[in-house]
Inverse folding.
């Protein structure tokens, strides 16, 4: 029955008349690519911008444009808007995995795949959209194998990366932090998914850090003595119970950021350093040319269970790899003292990973799919200088 329903829905989608509106399907609802696209589409020639959302009644994180309406994702009206859309942009699997050729469908996705995704994983098919996005020809070849679009992969950058070029002062003000405070981010990827396709990768550490020996009180004391604040944000697909806060260490989620009218990438643009493991955010963060530390205690196990798209994976790290909390503190102290020993390796990864190093990815995307009419000020292009942590 499920197979028959899927065939019927695909036929309805294929033969429905298409109108001049754009649908955006993002997850979470306020994902940065959603924000960047919604804003830019206001000045395109589409007549309506439809945000398909889990909770369309929730307060908006940003001021919506006059063309925009919000509609519940899993609803009949949402399905009708989707079926009749000439343009569809999505970050995750939506109503279909097989778009008809008369729909300008763009798989915006949510980062460059250092770990295997889509067709590279057994039991997880890709999405046959017209286009997929990549940040460079190097990653475009991998996205082609992972997603197999029926059109092309566009190596023009990701809309969400435009929002990395944020105003540091405004972000610190929203967080209630003084200008001289070091601001750090820790974004581990999930080991066991609690949403979407169920799977377990690597070894669960039993805490939000995905590092088993982290003592939050001790880490907070270390950060306090270094005049640094660290925000830890678990992956949206990881288990998360509630936000926690010490004086200099905060464990937060998207809702916490939204309460402060901040998006994740807007926040990241104001940080001095990123800690992560194998999350695709590392590739995006290269645009800022700021230090990266890979906190990766289960690299071998993760490689055996999930696998990587590039080998050997050590050649594609953007900074030192730490496997316990002491090594993490030592790596942080090295950066705090002004050392940047892996800057050359990080910048080599930047060269490989980004053909464009500005805030213009959204503009390039809309131009590539024929949505012209943008004003010159709709998607500013700005570079961000390297800051030395002192």
């Amino acid at each position: 029955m499920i197979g028959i329903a899927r065939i019927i829905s695909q036929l309805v989608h294929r033969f429905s008349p298409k109108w001049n509106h754009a649908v955006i399907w993002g997850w979470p609802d306020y994902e940065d690519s959603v924000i960047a696209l919604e804003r830019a589409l206001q000045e395109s020639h589409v007549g309506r911008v439809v945000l398909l959302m889990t909770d369309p009644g929730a307060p908006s994180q940003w001021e919506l444009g006059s063309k925009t309406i919000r509609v519940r994702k899993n609803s009949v009206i949402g399905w009708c808007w989707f079926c009749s859309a000439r343009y569809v942009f999505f970050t995750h699997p939506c109503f279909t995995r097989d778009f008809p050729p008369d729909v300008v469908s763009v798989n915006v996705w949510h980062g460059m795949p250092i770990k295997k995704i889509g067709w590279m994983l057994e039991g997880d098919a890709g999405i046959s959209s017209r286009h997929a996005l990549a940040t460079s020809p190097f990653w475009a070849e991998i996205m082609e194998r992972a997603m197999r679009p029926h059109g092309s992969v566009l190596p023009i950058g990701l809309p969400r990366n435009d929002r990395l070029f944020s105003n540091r002062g405004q972000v610190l003000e929203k967080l209630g932090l003084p200008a001289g405070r070091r601001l750090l981010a820790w974004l581990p990827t999930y080991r066991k998914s609690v949403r979407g396709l169920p799977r377990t990768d690597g070894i669960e550490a039993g805490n939000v850090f995905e590092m088993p020996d982290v003592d939050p009180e001790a880490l907070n004391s270390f950060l306090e003595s270094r005049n640094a604040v660290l925000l830890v944000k678990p992956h949206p697909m990881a288990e998360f119970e509630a936000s926690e806060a010490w004086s200099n260490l905060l464990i937060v989620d998207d809702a916490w950021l939204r309460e402060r009218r901040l998006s994740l990438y807007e926040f990241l643009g104001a940080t001095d350093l990123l800690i992560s493991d194998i999350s695709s955010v590392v590739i995006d963060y290269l645009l800022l040319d700021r230090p990266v530390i890979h906190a990766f205690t289960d690299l071998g196990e993760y490689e055996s269970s999930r696998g990587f798209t590039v080998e050997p994976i050590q050649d594609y790290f953007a900074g030192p790899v730490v496997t316990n909390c002491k090594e993490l503190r030592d790596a942080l102290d090295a950066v705090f003292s002004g050392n940047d020993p892996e800057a050359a390796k990080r910048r080599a990864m930047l060269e490989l990973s980004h053909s464009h190093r500005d805030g213009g990815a959204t503009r390039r995307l809309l131009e590539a799919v024929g949505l012209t009419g943008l004003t010159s000020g709709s998607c500013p292009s700005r570079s961000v200088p390297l800051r030395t942590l002192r």
